[in-house]
Design brief:
The chain has a domain of 132 residues: Domain of unknown function DUF4466 (Immunoglobulin-like, Sandwich), CATH 2.60.40.3550. It contains two helices and 40 strands. The termini are far apart. It is mostly beta strands and 491 residues long. The strands form five sheets. The chain has a 20-stranded parallel sheet that branches. Strands 2, 4, 6, 7, 9, 10 and 11 form a seven-stranded mixed sheet that branches.
């Protein structure tokens, strides 16, 4: 939306003689109460309007606190500001930074900055960037409990205007909490708030951000439950939390674009992350360990899921378990070790045998490794293997992605779980020599890996035009195989 608006502003201005647009903050961004927000404006003129250029600003109910312009003389007065320039040559850069102090009230505001550029010729253009200040609900001894704040937010936050529950203190909360139905709600515990014996449940179809909490010892259900209405959407971000000692940890139903990242999820009695159903669930950069079932479970209603860059260790069952009805799940770049079953299991049936034609399945055949040897003369480890290159007829573009892993031991099933990715970056151009006609590949690695076990996964990448908000993990549809057979590096 932002790029469309900016393009429109430039196009309109091109029909006149002067123009301007804002490069920051993002249009419609949510900002904090009482914060100083820097609006970056880029004015421009054509050849006939270089003289006596004036840029006027007004904003309400906020206050203009600072202003600085490149080549401009600028002044402020309460909610207004002005920048002037006697000569503003065409095709030159003359940015203006406007510092706007947001209101501190808790009622919430929609703030629009009206910026108008004019020249001596009479040419003029107006650009109106906007931001939101969240409606705030304060949890403290004087203002009431978290349960009260959630109840108030549920009643007041019924549209898409942003709301926030704030915690201006450090401490432990143990009260029973109502389900959250407020739309567009943010809750940040700033790593100071512990929810002990209680969890957070969300029922709705809008946006939710949960960060900075420790959620522990909850026997009544998931530490965090995300439950959207069927055939609607819940965009949820669960970031930088600690979930430990709960009956369940993070569970989702019917969500869309759910981002679960930078969390520590450990010692819960069931799976670390249990995604029953949803579109585009992303689980990445988490530590998921010693849970009582699988590290991550993608259920039968999941499509286009991803589990990347996690540490998944010592869980009772699988590292990543994928229901046979789950479609298009990417699993790349994780460090997995000590899980009770396989590192990756597609179908909940242990090792899935390769078949002659896998193009109609949601997961491709696993690679087959044929050898891994270290040459002391060249000081290189050479790994060789094969993948089935089968492109479905209804796919226009297809790319095979091969990831290799190093493990020190095998699991109870005689498989390597992938303790460490051979290449840390999940690049689409890893240094793997693949014959696109035969499917044979060779990897030459400049390290002595003698005695280590090599395993590999194969990810089919189909370019079908799917996208997602930042972070953009869904530019393509991708599906990852189970781990290959392990091969021990010899000399």
């Amino acid at each position: 939306m932002k790029s469309i608006l900016l393009a429109l502003s430039v196009a309109v201005a091109a029909n006149g003689s002067v123009g301007l647009w804002s490069s920051a903050p993002q249009l419609g961004a949510v900002v904090s109460r009482a914060s100083l927000v820097a609006f970056q404006f880029v004015p421009f003129v054509n050849d006939v309007d270089e003289h006596d250029v004036v840029v006027d600003f007004s904003v309400a109910p906020a206050t203009v606190e600072t202003i600085k312009g490149e080549g401009f003389t600028c002044t402020t007065s309460g909610a207004t500001a002005r920048c002037t320039r006697a000569l503003f040559p065409a095709n030159t850069v003359g940015g203006i930074t406007l510092g706007v102090r947001m209101p501190s009230e808790v009622t919430g505001f929609h703030i629009t900055v009206i910026a108008t550029i004019s020249a001596a010729s009479g040419s003029t253009y107006t650009w109106r960037p906007n931001v939101f200040v969240s409606k705030a609900f304060i949890v403290s001894e004087s203002r009431g409990s978290l349960a009260d704040a959630i109840t108030q937010a549920n009643a007041a936050c019924v549209n898409n205007d942003p709301c926030e529950i704030e915690f201006p203190f450090s401490g432990t909360i143990s009260e029973s909490l109502p389900a959250i139905t407020a739309k567009h709600l943010k809750m940040d515990g700033h790593k100071d708030i512990v929810l002990d014996g209680t969890g957070l449940a969300f029922n709705g179809n809008s946006e939710l951000e949960i960060s900075g909490f420790t959620i522990q010892n909850f026997d009544g259900g998931p530490g965090i439950l995300l439950n959207a209405e069927p055939r609607t959407g819940l965009r949820a971000t669960v970031e930088d939390n600690v979930l430990t000692g709960n009956l369940r940890r993070i569970m989702t139903h019917n969500t869309a674009f759910t981002y679960i990242y930078n969390n520590v999820i450990s010692n819960n009695r069931r799976s670390g992350v249990w995604i029953v159903s949803g579109y585009y669930p992303a689980v990445y950069r988490n530590t998921i360990e010693t849970n009582g079932a699988s590290g991550v479970y993608f259920g039968p209603g999941c499509q286009f899921g991803m589990a990347d860059d996690n540490e998944i260790r010592s869980n009772r069952d699988f590292g990543v378990a994928i229901d046979p009805q789950s479609k298009w799940t990417e699993v790349r770049g994780n460090s997995m070790k000590g899980n009770g079953q396989l590192g990756i299991d597609y179908g909940l049936d242990l090792v899935t045998p390769n078949v002659a034609d896998d193009s109609r399945r949601s997961a491709p055949n696993a690679p087959v490794l044929t050898s891994a040897t270290y040459d002391p003369l060249t000081k290189k480890t050479v790994i060789m293997g094969h993948v089935d290159l089968i492109k479905p007829a209804d796919v226009g573009y297809y790319a095979p992605l091969i990831d290799l892993y190093v493990s020190s031991t095998l699991d109870a099933n005689g498989m390597a779980q992938g303790e460490k990715p051979l290449y840390e970056s999940l690049d689409y151009n890893l240094p793997i020599g693949l014959n696109r006609n035969t499917g044979d590949f060779v990897v030459i690695y400049s390290t002595d890996l003698t005695g280590q076990y090599i395993s590999a996964t194969y990810t089919r990448m189909y370019a079908l035009g799917k996208g997602a908000p930042t972070p953009q993990y869904y530019e393509n549809w991708q599906a990852t195989s189970e781990f290959s057979n392990p091969v021990r590096v010899t000399r």
